[in-house]
Amino acid sequence: LENIEKINHNTSLFRFALPEAEQHAGLPVASCVITRYPITKKDGSTGYVIRPYTPTSPEEARGYVDFIVKSYPDGKMSKHIHNLKVGETLDVKGPIPKYNWEGSTIQNVGMIAGGTGITPMLQIIRKVFSDKSTDDKTKVTLVFANQTEDDILLKDELDKYAAQYPNRFKVVYVLDKPQQANWEGVKGFVTPELIKEHLPTPETESSIVFVCGPDPMVAALAGPKAKDKSQGEVSGVLKALGYGSENVYKF
C-alpha cells in the first residue's frame, strides 16, 4: 500500500505499488481482480477472505494500481483494506476480463450504477473519452444511484466529461435520501420511467445497457447473475421493458 486518499465518510482510494516501478498492470477494459487475505479458521487451519474489485487506475498506468473501496459494516475485505497501513501488502490476482470493450463498435451505451458499482463504468467512460481515443461517435448515458449527496463518488470527474462532451455524455444522478432542499437531481429509485426517459431503448441500434451495483439492485433491475457468476437470464425491470441478453450486461 503506497497511499490512501479519503473520498468521503466511508470510501477511500487506495493506491498499491506494483513490484516494479515501470510494471504495467495489464488490466484490459473492462476487467476486475481478485483480492485475498489469510484468516485463521476455528479449527486452527488457514483460510482466506476473497473478494473481487474493479481497479480505477488509468489503463496506461505504470507501477501502481488504484482501488476505490467503500467500508461496509459487515464487509470483511473492505474493512481489512481500510485497516491496512501504508507499507503493508494485499494479495491480488488477475486480471479477470469481464466485458471486452477493445474494438467495440457499440455507439449507444446506457449505464445504471449504484454506489461503488460506478467502478467498471468508469473504466469504459475513460476509455471512450480518452485523449487517445479515435472514437468520436459513441454516446454514453449514466444513471448513477446513491443514498445521499456525500455518497456520489467521482462526481467532479463525471461532471467534467458531461461539460466537455455535452452531445455524447450525460449523467443522471438519483438519490434515495437527498440532504439538500435544493437537490436538482432525481429523488427516489431507478424506475422504469427513468430508464425509458434516459437510456437506449431495446430497439436502439448498436446499443447496450450495463448494470452494476449492490446485488439486490442488480437483481431487481436485470435479474441476478447465475450461481457460477455468469450472466444468467435477464429479468426484472429491464426484461419488463423489453430488454434481453443481447443488449444487457451485468458486471
Automatic annotation (TrEMBL):
<dbReference type="InterPro" id="IPR039261">
    <property type="entry name" value="FNR_nucleotide-bd"/>
</dbReference>
<dbReference type="InterPro" id="IPR001433">
    <property type="entry name" value="OxRdtase_FAD/NAD-bd"/>
</dbReference>
<feature type="domain" description="FAD-binding FR-type">
    <location>
        <begin position="1"/>
        <end position="102"/>
    </location>
</feature>
<feature type="binding site">
    <location>
        <position position="119"/>
    </location>
    <ligand>
        <name>FAD</name>
    </ligand>
</feature>
<feature type="binding site">
    <location>
        <position position="78"/>
    </location>
    <ligand>
        <name>FAD</name>
    </ligand>
</feature>
<dbReference type="InterPro" id="IPR017938">
    <property type="entry name" value="Riboflavin_synthase-like_b-brl"/>
</dbReference>
<keyword id="KW-0560">Oxidoreductase</keyword>
<keyword id="KW-0472">Membrane</keyword>
<protein>
    <recommendedName>
        <fullName>cytochrome-b5 reductase</fullName>
        <ecNumber>1.6.2.2</ecNumber>
    </recommendedName>
</protein>
<feature type="binding site">
    <location>
        <position position="77"/>
    </location>
    <ligand>
        <name>FAD</name>
    </ligand>
</feature>
<dbReference type="Pfam" id="PF00970">
    <property type="entry name" value="FAD_binding_6"/>
</dbReference>
<keyword id="KW-1000">Mitochondrion outer membrane</keyword>
<feature type="binding site">
    <location>
        <position position="51"/>
    </location>
    <ligand>
        <name>FAD</name>
    </ligand>
</feature>
<feature type="binding site">
    <location>
        <position position="70"/>
    </location>
    <ligand>
        <name>FAD</name>
    </ligand>
</feature>
<keyword id="KW-0520">NAD</keyword>
<dbReference type="InterPro" id="IPR017927">
    <property type="entry name" value="FAD-bd_FR_type"/>
</dbReference>
<keyword id="KW-0274">FAD</keyword>
<feature type="binding site">
    <location>
        <position position="68"/>
    </location>
    <ligand>
        <name>FAD</name>
    </ligand>
</feature>
<feature type="binding site">
    <location>
        <position position="53"/>
    </location>
    <ligand>
        <name>FAD</name>
    </ligand>
</feature>
<feature type="binding site">
    <location>
        <position position="52"/>
    </location>
    <ligand>
        <name>FAD</name>
    </ligand>
</feature>
<dbReference type="Pfam" id="PF00175">
    <property type="entry name" value="NAD_binding_1"/>
</dbReference>
<comment type="similarity">
    <text>Belongs to the flavoprotein pyridine nucleotide cytochrome reductase family.</text>
</comment>
<keyword id="KW-0496">Mitochondrion</keyword>
<dbReference type="InterPro" id="IPR008333">
    <property type="entry name" value="Cbr1-like_FAD-bd_dom"/>
</dbReference>
<keyword id="KW-0285">Flavoprotein</keyword>
<dbReference type="InterPro" id="IPR001709">
    <property type="entry name" value="Flavoprot_Pyr_Nucl_cyt_Rdtase"/>
</dbReference>
<dbReference type="GO" id="GO:0090524">
    <property type="term" value="F:cytochrome-b5 reductase activity, acting on NADH"/>
</dbReference>
<dbReference type="InterPro" id="IPR001834">
    <property type="entry name" value="CBR-like"/>
</dbReference>
<dbReference type="GO" id="GO:0005741">
    <property type="term" value="C:mitochondrial outer membrane"/>
</dbReference>
<feature type="binding site">
    <location>
        <position position="76"/>
    </location>
    <ligand>
        <name>FAD</name>
    </ligand>
</feature>
